[in-house]
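From the thread on structure requests for the teaching lab: each student submitted one protein with a one-line request. Submission from student K.M.:

"Model Tetratricopeptide repeat protein 37 isoform X2 from Apis mellifera, tokens only."
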Amino acid sequence: MIDKVLGRILLDNINKLDKYQDLLKNVFKSSITDLDAIEQQHFYKKYLKILYDKDELTILMKEAINMHQQFPQDIISLEYICLIYCEQNILGENFSDIDMTQFYECLLKLNKESEIATVTKAIYLKKSNDLITAREILKDMLVLKPHSIHGWMALSEISMKLYCWEDAEIAAKRILEIKEYKLKDELKYKMELILVEAMSRCNDKHKWETALQIYEQHLKTHTSMQLDLIHARLSILLNQPNAYILLNNLESKHETKSQANILRALYLKQNKQLDEAVNVLDSVLETSETWLFLGIIYWEMAEYNYSLMAFLNGIKADRYNWKCLVYLGHYYREYGNDMERSRKCYQSALQINPNSEEAGIGLSTAYRLLKNQDANIKLLQVLTVQGSGPRWAWLQLGLQYLDQGNAEQAIKAFQHVIRVDPNDSHCWESLADAYFIRGAYTSALKSYQRVLELCPKSLYPMIQLANIKLIIGQYNEAKNDFEHILIYESRYIPALKGLAETCLALAKEYTAKQFLGRANDCLQQAMNSLIVAIKERKDTSCIWKLLGDICYRVAILPEKYSYLKVSSILIKYEDIENIILLKKQDMFSLSIRCYCCALSLSPQSALLWHDLALCYLMQLQYDPSINHKNLASKSLAAAKHAIKLNPSIWIHWNLLGVICMSPYIKNFALAQHAYIMAIDTEINNAIVWCNLGTLYLYTENLYKANEAYSRAQRADPAYINSWIGQALIAEMMHRKEAMDLFRHATQLGYHSQAAIGYTHWVLDMILNSDTKKNSLNICVTENAVFAATDVMTWYIENHPNDCYARNAYGLLLQRQKLYKSAAEQFAVAVCNSINNKKDLVCVNLAHVLIKLKKYNEAIKLCQTVQNINYNSQCHLALALFKAAKYEEAYTTYETTLQFLANTEIEKSYALCAMGAIAYTFQKVNDAKTLLFQCIQIQPPVITGLLAAASLGILHGDINLTTLVLNELQLYENHLEYGYHVVNLSAYFYLIGNDVKKAITILSKAIFTHPSNVKNWIRLLRILLETNVHMFSKCAQKVLFLNKYITSENHANVACALSYSYFMQNLVPANIIAMQKLVFTYPGNIESWAMFIAVFLSRSAIKSHKVDIKWLTMLITSIQKNYESTNLMAKWLNDSKKKLKEISIK
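Reply posted by the TA:
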């Protein structure tokens, strides 16, 4: 009764009696059975709390069970039962004789959200070895109650059992971070121990160092076998000096000897003593951990079968050792050739450790290799839901999308990984691959460059960078990249192939630009690269195909460049490798052989059959020595087979059409069908429409041809062949637009038909008198001549034996007064010409030789003409005249006049020439007679009238001069001879002392034609003698009107103007004028002479200082670098003497 009353009093003041816990316990214990039910339940709760605080857990467990039996609906007793069970299990003690199932289930019925009941259930499942379920229960609970200290404790224990060291580390850290709950010392020590061990098991040096710090700061004072083992492990991993001593101490103790042997093996492995490590482990193969360690060592030794047995034994010893499963997955994937079993291993490992990057990557890779895309996507999408998830899952998701060709989604996934880790080179590489697949080559280029920054010697990004540059047309950069790779890997097939492809692309580019020598050099380099590749891999069709392409490209080059140095291995001449020089015809044969080798490896490749057919077709055009009918049949058969293999590609149908149009097939109906089929495949195709137009042109259906060419032009306005086709139609219809069409074609690029067509029209324009009148501006500016010369230069390079082209090219060069080059072209044309055509070229060559003052050669050449005519004999007579063989020249003209002059104009010209020769012999009267006969012929030739007027002026025959000048007034505005008419009229009045009339005539001509500098020069010559001031004004005006034109006449005007300043002694203007003169006409010796003259005049004045030495050196330099007349040379020498005299004074 006393205990009962005392108990009530103490119960009411329990919070103030901390010092009397023992008294409370005894009072409650003795009085608890004497109370009524309600009071007894109340006493029990206080009693259980006192027992827990005093750490009398065994009594607490007994009393809590008693209370539960008396009050089964009370949760306090159940919570204490579960709490004691949890904490004791964590500390390594347990109540094995108590069935905890009834208690946690009962508590969960009473309180579904009971934290301690959930933890107890998880611990009970752990003891039942159902670790996965236990972990899932705890994780679900901790999501709702993240501050559950006992939940994190249990999770750390279970994670250790599952070898999930990172999870255990996280759980232990969370426990130690929670400050609301005061942890018992034993539990705190236990959590610190778990934390240090978990960190020691991770593969992270930073964590090892942190774990060692924790040990030094918190755990060093404690002594336990487990702690010693952890300390030794950390010392070994961090290569601490005391590691060896710690190992020896552990090995000396019986209870730690087994674990110490495992650490000894770790120590040996760290020091690369793998065999010794295996020997040590063989004696302690008791646990799953030991078997795993043994398997890893065997794996590093490449003893994969031994490692397989070790990993299998490891799983047998502990089915939760997920690391063994990961290695088993590696083995079955890489060496066991059992991808399904590998998948199962990875899947099991990932179930045990969902955070394992290695297991996740392995499972995802297995799904990809098994082509199980749905399962892989499902796995990875679950892991990466709402933008979260592990980095490896995003990476694998990107790789899966990449395999599916979904570049957009792959890019997003890889970008997520890079945001997390910007230095992940593998992810940058995968991102670059995704950009590459999408066609975003610039982004791919930058990504691969980033990979190279992170891994400078990585081969894959280097080869990809080169490939991208090849694709986007940066051929020189790509070539440099491939060559750089081959410095390190000289026989790396992708680099050798890439270099060959780049050189081939460069060769095509150079060929289009007509850099044919460079094209040959590139093709030679490509051949050299592929010879190395073919030695390594003769079983690769793409290399043989590239070899065929290179040989084909060389074969279709002009004869001068159509050669290659080839290894004898390709030709099978001999076993020992030699270098053989092959030329055009042999290159075709080698190309066909290479294509056939490629087809033997890939017989179903339509593109290879296409290439073979094209090669046969080109050989038909270039090789006259072959059996054309047989080769045409082969070409046709190959093209048909390409269509059979792949009828949906237009290029095969187009090639079939071209082959059918060849002169050895001439199946125009089949050609038309082929072109129509090609158009059906791809309607907006300029090439096919153009070829169809050419077919209609062959069959003289000009309307349809024009329509087809128009469709081609709409499809691709830059396609040159369609413009050539339209030009040919215009030419056939005698339309002047033909020239414009040919010109436009030459502006788009080079084509032999465009070159020869345009040149024909340019020459026709030059030679045709009507064309001259209507299109004289084009002829004067010479733009057409220059453009035609350029394209004919390329044409001759491609067709060196075309005598017609050589002749046309020579005429163009002659037009530009490039007589030496013209003579070379005519000479080659003469050698290649036959019969009548040769006579024509001989005359053209003779004309140029006369211009080059090679009169004797011209005479010999004219004498070789077999079918003589008026033109050939006039050239012979002119050459004789120039060679001072006047009598022979006169006789030849006389013969030409009597027998070969067919028109009145031809007779006039012959008489005029005879008059000139007669005048040479001082036979003035005979000359007058011949010229009078000449001008009597109607219509008179202008040259005859000009000659007669000149003769009259020279010999004072006023009547003759007046008569002829009256006739010449009709020609004052003639574009070619008007200047001569004005000049003679002015000169006639000058000799009659009528200067004013002469100036009037020249002024009138200048007013009509202000751009004619020759009239200005005549006027300036008169004004220089009569009115210097007016001369200066006129000279300034002519220079202003023609300031954008540079010619010898303008230089003379400028020199004259400077001379006028010099004469007027305008010193400042003098100097400025000289400077402008030299800067404007640096190539004219007269301008330099005027410049020197100014300084010479200044040197005579004492107040002016002139650098005489410098001026003397300038004169010497001018004498060396400029051609000068005798008068100019004498003046320069006199100037040097004058300067020498001044320097002596």
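TA comment: The chain has 64 helices and two strands. The longest strand covers residues 563-567.
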